[in-house]
Amino acid sequence: MSEVTSFAELDLPEALLKAVAELGYETPSPIQAESIPKLLAGNDLLGQAQTGTGKTAAFALPLLARLEAGQREPQILVLAPTRELAIQVAEAFQSYAKYLPQFHVLPIYGGQSYSNQLRSLKRGCQVVVGTPGRIMDHLDRGTLVLDKLKAIVLDEADEMLRMGFIDDVQVIMDKTPPGRQVAMFSATMPTQIRAIAQKHLSNAHEIKIVTKTSTVERITQRFVLLENNQKLDALTRLLEGEDYDASIVFVRTKSATEEIAVKLGARGYAVASLNGDMNQTHREQTIRRIKDGQLDVIVATDVAARGLDVERISLVVNYDIPYDSEAYVHRIGRTGRAGREGKAILFVSPRERRLLRSIEQATRQPIEQMTLPTGAVIEQRRIQNFRAELAQSIETQDLTFFQGLIAQWQETLDCADNELAAALLFMAQKDQPLNVAAQFPALREPSNKRDRERSDRPVRERGERPDRAERGPKPRREMKGDYTTYRIEVGKEHGVRAGDIVGAIANEANIDSQFIGNIKLFDQFSTVELPATMPAEIFQHLKKVYVRKQKLNISVDQGSTERRAPGPGPRPGAGPRPGAAPKRRSQ
């Protein structure tokens, strides 16, 4: 097909084109240009493309164009491997469908309240985006009906395979009506994924997008591994410890732009926010102020910063990691302009390392880990800046009046020259103390031991596995606090692996993997250590979660051992007893 230069050439409805234009989309990416016409025509599609190539718009826009406006039952089902991706895709659908009448999209994933999901399903929605486990749960309950489904999308199918969800995906697809449209996207195409495509796709068009390096070579890219509650402290250190002329800080939400700008302003920075709620006049004033040197920092969202071209910006801070690699490329493109050097720094929490790897794979450039400036570095920088301002004042200001005051005060206070100078220096630096090394302890490393160990390992291409000698012995999980051992009714005979159990609990119960203790696999059941303070609603939800087509049916373990044959099952009503003393995990 000829090169597509605008979305208007793709025969999309005017309502979608208007929303796309407002989002700042101009030229369709290769995956969008090839996928949209085929999906608009009702064809099945098998797409191979990395995260960050614009896949969401590639399937969302054409499928939205084929919706029946008056139908309340789900017409589109999107399966995603993680709740983070499910939320991202649902938000994208909502943005694209801004001007479609009576449109509703519902994200469904573990850790959410069932009652809220049930109310939304009863109210009606055209699009459901969810993780396989929670979708299976609603199908088993009969609360999600797919009789009117027009299309199903498998997003990041290879990730679902890696996380052990592919069997659930097969079951879900078998429950969709015949004749529905199928779109499958995967960064790689292993045998199992291609087998699913051959079984469920009909006369599918196959598209493969080869991603080229798209980041600017003059930009130095680094990341900081930290917990989310450390971001503001880390940002303050970077702004003090890094050399830059002006900086732009990217966040995900409009409210975050204002909140962080206020907090930075309170710490003495010349800062302003930039978001989609601002009118054009206010936006132009803000951009003019940073160009003129009246501002040093802008806190912005992706949409608000599109088209921003300010030569002073030499540092980009990704305060919130973008879900889309294409958005990352746009962000860091705000620096390193006109042939100058630029710096881009990315904040990454342990749970976001997968997004970091996706960005590296999509851009084909490694992002190096960095350490934050120490208190000693910040102290020296403050002293140097203060000394430079002092020297400028000596050279450029008429100090006659102040010299007279100094002579008068020396006589009145009966003090030496250096004492008076030290006292004045102390008073002048109160808002930004010069002696700060002791006040800036090193930020605590992320608590997930495995993530700390992974941070020094080289990035591997997806699907590449190190040999046993390189991997070394698997470290034992070390955690503190009260833990209870639970029994789940899935074991070796069902083909389960420890990773399957971790993935199911982490994604469906919203329990971070670092809080999942030791796992032991037996023939017909397994045991897993979980926090004793786990809420009762999560415990009840885990009873219904599936792994390898088996319900977990979780219960408090009554002393299972490898030598003991599995009994008839847990006692009726097994589970955490209100007020019961938790098992104390040995330290």
Automatic annotation (TrEMBL):
Keywords: ATP-binding, Cytoplasm, Helicase, Hydrolase, Nucleotide-binding, RNA-binding, Stress response. A motif (Q motif) lies at residues 5-33. Residues 36-207 form the Helicase ATP-binding domain. The keyword Oxidoreductase does not apply. Transmembrane segments: none annotated. It is an enzyme of class 3 (hydrolase). Residues 5-33 form the DEAD-box RNA helicase Q domain. One of its GO terms (biological process) is cellular response to cold. It is found in: Cytoplasm. It comes from the Bacteria. It catalyses: ATP + H2O = ADP + phosphate + H(+). SMART domains: DEXDc, HELICc. Residues 231-378 form the Helicase C-terminal domain. Belongs to the DEAD box helicase family. DeaD/CsdA subfamily. This is ATP-dependent RNA helicase DeaD. The lineage of its organism: Bacteria, Pseudomonadati, Pseudomonadota, Gammaproteobacteria, Alkalimonas. The gene is deaD.
